[in-house]
Amino acid sequence: MAKQGQSARASGDEAAGVAPSSALPLAELFRQKRREAGLSQQELAERCGVKQSAISGFERHGSAAQALSVEKLRQVADLLGIVVDEAQVKARPHAARLALFYCPDPDCPSTHVYPLGAQTAYRPRFVRAEAEVPFHCPDCGEICEKRCPECGTPISERLRGAFCSDCGKPLVAGDRLTAAAIAEREVCRAALTAAIPAVEFRHGREGGGAGGD
Ligand SMILES: [Zn+2]
Ligand SMILES: [Zn+2]
């Protein structure tokens, strides 16, 4: 019969694909199943309503790419006929598209308080969380900010500090604190950072998988 378009070029890969699929890391299994289905990354992405770069990122770096939300991961897996067990999904540190947030409450121990001349400045401790959901501070429950309240500039890892780099507005507004109160807050903050260092936004390589292959 004439070539059916999709499956025509799968034959050459067959020798490499003999390993039982369940033994493969999830990312490789995704790639393998996608190819077996005759789908390009772009085609798969379109069917699942995600970007091609998300598929590419996942296939290259697995969960570490943080390219797919849990829901999307399940959806893609479903489409490819892959059974993803709960442990594999739960092992993912943060599954969705991430955004930086900070707690706007100057009394919250997550907020880094320090004297700046005669003033007290409040430097927010950024955390990353799913971008679409309103993020609540894990320490005080306050709804966190992800952009400058004054000018709307999104918070970024390059803009760590007490003030908005665009408009100069303090990110966290609050009253002056006494030196003792600041010291107390510092102890609290240090303990907090030691307890959950992974939450602190470090040096992500966000969106690393843009190119297809
Ligand atoms: Zn808080
Ligand atoms: Zn601003």
Largest sheet properties? 2 strands, antiparallel
Reading the helices and strands in chain order gives HHHHHEEEEH
Radius of gyration: 23 Å
Gross morphology is elongated
The proportion of residues forming helix, as a percent range, comes to 25-40%
Averaging pLDDT over every residue, what do you get?
70
Total domain count? 2
Number of DSSP helical runs = 6
Spans of 5+ residues with little confidence (pLDDT < 50)?
1-21, 196-213
Distance between the termini: 30 Å
In total, how many beta strands?
Answer: 4
Amount of beta strand: 5-15%
Order of the strands making up the biggest sheet = 1-4
Structural class by sheet pairing and helices: alpha+beta
Any ligands, ions or cofactors bound here, and which? Answer: zinc ion
Fold and architecture overview:
With 213 residues, the chain is α+β, with helices and mostly antiparallel strands. The chain folds into 2 domains: 22-90, 434 Repressor (Amino-terminal Domain) (Orthogonal Bundle); 98-199, no CATH class. Helices cover 29% and strands 8% of the residues. It has 6 helices and 4 strands, in the order αααααββββα. The strands form 2 sheets. It has a two-stranded antiparallel ribbon with strand order 1-4. It has a two-stranded antiparallel ribbon with strand order 2-3. A hairpin with a 2-residue loop joins β2 and β3 (119-123). α1 crosses α3 (52-61) and α2 (41-48) crosses α3 (52-61). It is elongated and about 65 Å long. The two termini are 30 Å apart. 24% of the residues are buried. The structure holds zinc ion (2 copies). One zinc ion binds next to loops.
